[in-house]
Automatic annotation (TrEMBL):
CDD domains: CHD (cd07302). GO terms for molecular function: 3',5'-cyclic-nucleotide phosphodiesterase activity; adenylate cyclase activity; guanylate cyclase activity; nucleotide binding; peptide receptor activity. InterPro entries: A/G_cyclase (IPR001054), Cyclic_nucleotide_synthase (IPR050401), HD/PDEase_dom (IPR003607), Nucleotide_cyclase (IPR029787), PDEase_catalytic_dom (IPR002073), PDEase_catalytic_dom_sf (IPR036971). Residues 1-28 are annotated as: Disordered. It comes from Seminavis robusta. This is Receptor-type guanylate cyclase gcy. It is found in: Membrane. Its main location: membrane. It comes from the Eukaryota. It holds the Pfam family Guanylate_cyc. The keyword Methyltransferase does not apply.
Amino acid sequence: MSIRLNKMGGGSQHRSSTGSSDKEFFSDTLSTGTFSAWGGGSNNGESADDMDEERANYEAPVVAAKEEKMVLYSKIAVVLVLLVAVAGMAAGVYQLVSSQEQQEFGDKFESWASEVIAISAEHVTTTFETIEQFAVTVASTARTTNSVWPNVTIDDYPLKASMLMKLTGLSSVTLLTLVSPEDKLGWEAYARERVRDLIQEDLEFYGHTNETWGADNLTIYDEMMVRQGRGTPLAPVGNNETIGNSLPHWQKSPVSPTRTDALALVSVLGNKSIRDGFETSNATGIASIAFFAGLGIRSQVVQPIWDQVTHGKLVGAIWSYGDWGAYFQNLVNVPATLFLVVESSCGFVSTYALNGLEAELLGLEDLHDPAYDDMVVTGELFTPVYDRNKTLPDGVCVHDLVLKIYPSSNLESTFVTYTPLLYAGAVVLIFAITSLIFIFYDQMVRRRQVMVMKRLIREDQIVSSLFPSQIRARMYQDNSGSNDDDARSLVSKRHVELFNEDLENPETFKSAPLADLFLNTTVMFADIAGFTAWSSAKDPILVFMLLETIYSAFDKLANRYGVFKVETVGDCYVAAAGVPDPRNDHPVIMAKFARACMMKMKTVTQKLEVTLGPDTGDLALRVGLHSGQCTAGVLRGDKARYQIFGDTVNTASRIETSSVPGKIHISDFTAELLKKAGKGKWLVPRAEKIPLAGKGDMQTFWLLVSRYQNRESIKKPAGEAMMAIDEASEADASLREMEEQEASGDSMTKMERLVEWNTDVLCQLLRQILACRTAAPVSAAKLEKTIGQGQTVLEEFQAIVTLPKYSREEMAKRKGLKEVDIAPVVVDQLRDYITKVAGMYRSNSFHNFEHASHVVASVRKLLTRIVASNSGGEGLGVDAGHSFGITADPLTQFAVVFSAVIHDADHPGIPNTQMIKEGNPLASMYKEKSVAEQNSVDLCWDLLMKPEYKDLRKAIYGNPEELQRFRQLAVNTVMATDIVDKELQALRKNRWNEAFSENALDDGSNRDLEVDRKATIVIEHLIQASDVSHTMQHWKIYLQWNERFFFELYRAYKEGRAGQDPSIAWYKGEIGFFDFYIIPLAKKLENCGVFGVSSHEYLNYAQANRDEWVRKGEDVVAGYLKKYAESTKEEMGLAHVFADEVANMDASGLSV
């Protein structure tokens, strides 16, 4: 295993005294103009004083008299004029002659390219016409012989097929007959009777009669066979109605002399490529082509056979395949290489190199020289003629082939001569003798020295950021040609001699590699546990914000502790102590560094949860340490890095993977080193040994993370867990500060972090609302008192919510507006409101404030992924034309996010049906419809209308119209989360069909109404998808929330608040939930076309989770039951302990 040095993780993180002197050296060099390739001091050059003196002499030469100076200046002026003149004339002559050569090159290339395209297209057309004629001949033969399809046999088929192959260059020609279920039995008898003779005829025609088998040894199936999928065995078609028609090989030429079974009773419709080709030919009425993966540019051609000359009934097909490279042979005798790029409308690309009359396949991608992109000559190679309005089968694509031809550098070189240089040289030669008299050689040398010095300084700065200082110095020594070890030098020379032809740059390897063996090192692997699942639910920008913040904090700790950062591999951070600076305290330093990283991880993730959203604070570091020897050095070549190798690195990686989140796992060898260093109190043996590949079972240890961490969690009292910090260093002082902060409990609780994050999300949208608000605010106090009164929340629901419309000019202005600052009082009121809403949520396993925050995260992600429109109707904004106005109005987005925050407030943890069954007063209040959802809206709306939130309300809406729209959006959005009510679901389905189905009416008569209808439906499905977004995210996230939902319902069942044990039908119920709700919902997100890549992402995760649940769901449910039983047992145990304590307090006379 090799670890490469991170670009910024080299010398900048491991400055020794030499490293600091390098910085001073660069500063001195820039100021004095000196430079030494040794990286410190000037061992081989002049001193700075000498250089200053020479420069002073150069800048002020001693001249005897003023007249001599004037003469000197005049000579310089003459030289400059002559240089300008000769440069201009030479450049002009060179450009003129070169342009003539380039013009000739371009004209000749276009002529060749046009000829190649014409001949190639003619070859292709002729081939397809010949195949079509062959199919017509087959149909005609059947009619002539009065044969009835599919029982048709073509006499002398090998002869006719071989003639077709000679004319077209095809490799194989097969007659496929279409056999219906009604004709299957008759066909099977017909085929068994004749197949031996047909195969024997083909073998004899191609001279295979002396092979080890013949038609007599042939295995003939008793009935029609088919493969149901790729890689599956042949199975009888039988009377399976799902199979439908069969398309067996009937007459094939040539027959493989090594095949021992007859294909006459094997249907090819199990082969997707052939089936798609056959269906495409049936749909288009012409031959179809498809390129085979893994077979270069070989493709199949499926030519349909009709029972009449002018089409009629489809009765079979001619299936053939061959190499398209044959079309580019013997075209035009070009003196050098032409690149022929074949591009298909279905995404297939291949490149040929045409040299003379021979064409060679280079690869299945565009491999032409990009330098000649502007010289491309393009022509149609093959364009099928068919009715393109016809609907093709799903997943089938008809290939339109385009041939692009590019020149090559060697072709251009045949037109490039030395003539321009000769003419330009002649001009220069005329002026050369006169000009050389006036050139000061010393002047040119000094200028050259300055240029070299500046470049070397820049190169040294780049190398300094990539390699440690001592490695950098050794690299300079090797580059200067010095070798410390003659044996190493000889090995390097021998290496170059043996592999000179295989080395891209042999000069690089003439010196010995820079590599060393470090006997005493400790390597750390630190992986972010839960990162993969967390990142699946986050925007890519948030993912990189997390990694950059964490790794930057680790980098600072590495500098502070003198630890060498090796690399970051994905979400894994790799570091080492003892490399490249040997140190005896490497295990102690690395233990402290790992402990600091663990604590920093906790601090950083909790702080980031406020900005990155839920579950960020739950991320934990999983660390593994191992000590031993390793090899480190510079692995030269492309993008050289300082790398470490060896068993120590591999073992450290395995120690990390066998660790658990939030703990530091160390090997037995590292533990022994820490004990020898007097740090045995830091260690706690792991209860079980772990198996390591190649090492057997190993007794490993846990390293206490904090000196305030007690050993009770690792089987030891707290008083013995104090980790002493021996060295009074800046790093340890910082670590003590983090420990004291952790012990004091100053950090925010998870609930506080979620409140802060939700506040921040809504504040961002409030800033956009205020930035877009141009009109003066109009009081909505009167409407605030009456809105929502006199009717239930559900009765307020409207099928269409009217959103504001903006012109393109208004949209452009709104997009250019900068966010405005929100008054602190508004932020405080919003934070207080979110805090009280969070308090309304009950301590349910699923319907709690943490889940509401998870829904908010999904809503925010989907809103940010809504893509802008590429076109829109007259009078509509850019977003209104594609996202139906949702992204054009920040108040709409605020209302949707607000609804996600409040949608489950005061949820009792039981379904609405159970609340109705129990006779809950809320059920009658809300007319036994969407009880919990309506209650959430009323509670949170009443809270928002209280006087203490008047400034917040003014920021949200600025007039009664905005208040009405905000209220309506909140009602519609929250009501959409009731997915159990069948009547409401049916209404939503009808509204979706009205807006997005293929039969949806949109005659353009009321475009604004249609846009609002679609916007309303999209918002409903957005919140529905977000409410169950865990089912469309990573498997671990799905399991996390699925388990919580199960516990919530199972607890209700155990408490007698549910009629049926949910565990009985949970497995099958989840499959049905995926099939009939989740996956259709994800497809709707994709079909409405506004969510960009997120819709594809949600659908892919939903299908993957569904498949995983089918495989593992039953075991998962069993695990739920076991975990619930254990948690219940633990709760009962704690209850008994509390009861005993109360009894003891009563016995001692203490009041409880």
